[in-house]
């Protein structure tokens, strides 16, 4: 049970449970503005996470390795849930709104952001997978992916784990053959 807020706290623009306690939020952006938004928010002193994937593009005269957003039109920001930080994000060119109920923004668990970050950092092969609400949650034990949680599934007979960012309903699936997996 949360303690009641005083009149002073309610007028301060607090949007979350604790003043000064930062959390991850998903921000919806204009198409192809993810890196621009991330850059501008970092200039404002806001921690951001724009997951990018290397992709080889081929034109008629050349090939080039480019980095595309893992989740197009989304940027993750870590801010304290206070009105002035939220307004600073919303006033950034390319930001359309926070993702959540009535556009206010819903905090994303740190573990979900960390799982996506770790998979990208360790260059673990994965494929996109439809978002799942149901399934058996599992955790990887040992190796470079120790502690990552997801949903155990079977894709074409191969054992896979789906890592989901629930708020934006996006998921990635990776093969977990060879990893020690335990139920959560």
Strand order of the biggest β-sheet: 7-11-10-9-8-12
First-to-last CA distance: 26 Å
Rounded mean pLDDT score: 83
Count, helices: 4
Describe it.
- By secondary structure, the protein is α+β, with helices and mostly antiparallel strands.
- The longest helix is centred in the middle third of the chain and has 12 residues.
- The chain starts with 6 loop residues before the first helix and ends with a strand.
- The strands form 3 sheets. It has a 6-stranded antiparallel beta sheet, covered by helices on one side.
Q: How would you summarize this macromolecular structure in one to three sentences?
A:
The chain is an alpha+beta fold and 184 residues long. The chain is built from four helices and twelve strands; from the N terminus they run αβαββββαβαββββββ.
Helix/strand layout:
Layout: H1 7-10, E1 23-29, H2 34-43, E2 47-49, E3 52-58, E4 63-69, E5 74-79, H3 83-90, E6 95-98, H4 110-121, E7 127-129, E8 136-141, E9 149-155, E10 158-165, E11 170-175, E12 180-183
Antiparallel strand pairs: 1-5, 1-6, 2-5, 3-4, 7-11, 8-9, 8-12, 9-10, 10-11
């Amino acid at each position: 049970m949360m303690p009641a807020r005083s009149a002073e706290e309610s007028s301060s623009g607090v949007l979350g449970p604790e003043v000064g306690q930062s959390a991850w939020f998903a921000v919806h952006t204009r198409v192809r503005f993810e890196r621009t938004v991330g850059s501008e928010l970092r200039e404002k002193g806001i921690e951001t996470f724009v997951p990018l994937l290397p992709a080889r593009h081929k034109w008629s005269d050349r090939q080039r390795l480019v980095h595309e957003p893992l989740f197009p039109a989304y940027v993750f920001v870590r801010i304290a849930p206070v009105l002035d930080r939220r307004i600073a994000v919303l006033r950034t060119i390319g930001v359309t709104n926070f993702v959540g109920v009535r556009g206010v923004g819903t905090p994303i668990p740190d573990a979900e952001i960390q799982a996506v970050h770790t998979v990208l950092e360790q260059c673990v092969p994965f494929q996109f997978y439809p978002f799942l609400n149901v399934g058996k949650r599992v955790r990887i034990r040992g190796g470079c992916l120790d502690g990552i949680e997801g949903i155990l599934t079977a894709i074409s007979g191969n054992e896979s784990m789906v890592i989901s960012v629930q708020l934006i309903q996006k998921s990635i699936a990776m093969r977990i053959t060879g990893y020690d997996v335990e139920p959560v």
